Structures are given as C-alpha cells and as structure tokens.
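Residues determine shape. We examine one folded chain.
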Amino acid sequence: MHGRDYQVGTLQVHWDDARIEIESAVTVPSRPHAVVPEAHGGFMAVATRPGTWMLRVDAQGRVAQQVTMADEGDARTLDGHVVASRDGQWLYSGETDRRSGEGWVSVRDARTLRKVAQFRTGGIDPHQILVADDDMLLVANGGIPRTPTGGKRDLDQMDPALVRLNPGNGEVLGEWKLPDRRLSPHHIAWNHPTQPDQRRLLGIGLQAEHDHAAQRREAPLLAVWDGQRLRIPRQPVVEGYAGDVAAGPDGGFVLTAQFADRIVMWRPGHPDELTPIGQVQNPCGLWPLDGAQGVIAGGGLGLARWHARDPARMLRWPAGLSADNHWAVLAA
C-alpha cells in the first residue's frame, strides 16, 4: 500500500546500502492480501475478504491477467489466498458464497486463471490453503460468521476447523478442531525438517475471538498438526493474535505476535517454549530464508531480517509506503 492508494508491486532491497527502492507498483481496486511468487519472477495477488479480484503480475511489473468475481457471476467472494498445485498446473483459491456463507475452493487453470472445478471446504470462512506432499489440500476454515462486507458477527456460533481435502473430487479426508471454538485458524505453514527422521509439521497461526479482552490476551498463538493430531504447545502470553506463520530453524516455526509487537520462534525440540527473537512495531508478513534458518518480516515502519547465524537488521520503508499483511521474495 502506498499513500492512500492500494497497490501491489515489487521492491528492491539493498541491505548493504541500507535502503529499499520501489521497483514497480500496480494500483488495485481494494485492499490486497496474499502475494504468491511464481517461477518466472512475477507473482499472484489476491484481494482480502470480501475480495472481488485476483491478478497475475509479470516479472516486469505489468498486469498479465486478471479475474474479477463479477466475471464469474458475482456469487462468491475471494478470501485473500491462492496456492498452486505441486506440478504448477492448477491454482486453488478459497472463496465464500455471498448468500449462504459456505466456504468453497475453486480449481483454476494456472495458465488462464479460468475456473475448471469447485468444491466445498466443509466449513465457513476459509482462509489460507496449502498443498501437502501427497498433493492433498489443507484448508484453514476460520469458522467466523461474517457480514456481506466481511465483518465478524455471531461469534458464539464460530465453528473453526483444519480440513484435509482431495482436490480431485472435493472429498473431505479429515477434520481437526481445537477444544476452544473461539480460536480461529487463519494462516498456516509447513515446517522445514532438518533431520531425515523429523516429522513434517503444519504450523497454524491462531486468532483469538473471545468476548473479553483478558481472554484474548492470554490465548495461544500457535497450534501444531502432525498429520494425525492437532495440539497447542504450552506458550507464554503474547496477546493471542498471529499475523503470520512461517517455517523456522530446527524444524520449527516463526510467528508474528502482531498485537504484542513481537516476533517469536517455536521449535519441536523445545515444545513448551515460545522464544522472542525480535521486537517490531506491528509485525505481520513473514518469509523464510536459507532453509528456514532465518526470516524476513514486514512491520509497521519497515522490513526486519532475523537469521540464526547473522546479526539482525531492519530497513525503513520508502517514504509514503505502508506494507500490508503479506509479502514474498520473488524469483530472480
């Protein structure tokens, strides 16, 4: 986001010279959310809920393709995320039915963005979708009932769940829920196992939606799924709102505790510890570096770099720019 306009684009980060330059920018009609890098050096961008657009930007910063929900009958809204299949042929976008509130996944031809199939997510408020090693989908159904404009309502009726789906036919292969229905899963990430026998884990960033502020402050930030069980490791008070989650060192995860202005790390070898690794104003988007031995995090004032072996760094955003929820490192 730049000035008062909503924009998506690319930045050149010069760590040695301690500066960030705006390389390209495209004005979009509403607030963007996820940015997904593509192999050719461009990226996909998706509007936040209730999203009405998704577009592809090429490596030169030009809009190559765009889809609007009006093109598809305007029956659905986008929920902020899209992910490619492992072979790159398909895109999976999370969506919400405008009338019923049901969650859907649309399967799109990656070449044209055209929808070729669709199936229900088995819940409401689907947010991030990831592809597993066996090509199945993991969907974070946030479970929050929403108004037509995306606002939260009737939180006592929340029904959040992590769902495993077969993208070939939409079959629900599994569903996992936490005991506390006021903990909403939104952002998810695979860990980066560092040992041959280390288990593949899914980190789930939680957002507390309790009625009382004290409950929200003391709510957990992270849940972990090991393919069979969904559990919440013991963790200190970090305000109960994960802005993002990414793979971290030692097969663990890094999370942005957005309301606590902190970046924290969890490792499976120390399951009852959530270690602070940085203090940044309004941290949110994360991207792992160097085999998940470090991360770059977007904050309210600039870009922060943390690495297990190197000194931490931070650069201010260019004048007039304020970063939004997510960002990514693009292919050269």
User: Anything to note?
Assistant: The chain has a mean pLDDT of 94. The first strand starts at residue 7 and ends at 14. The first helix runs from residue 213 to 218.
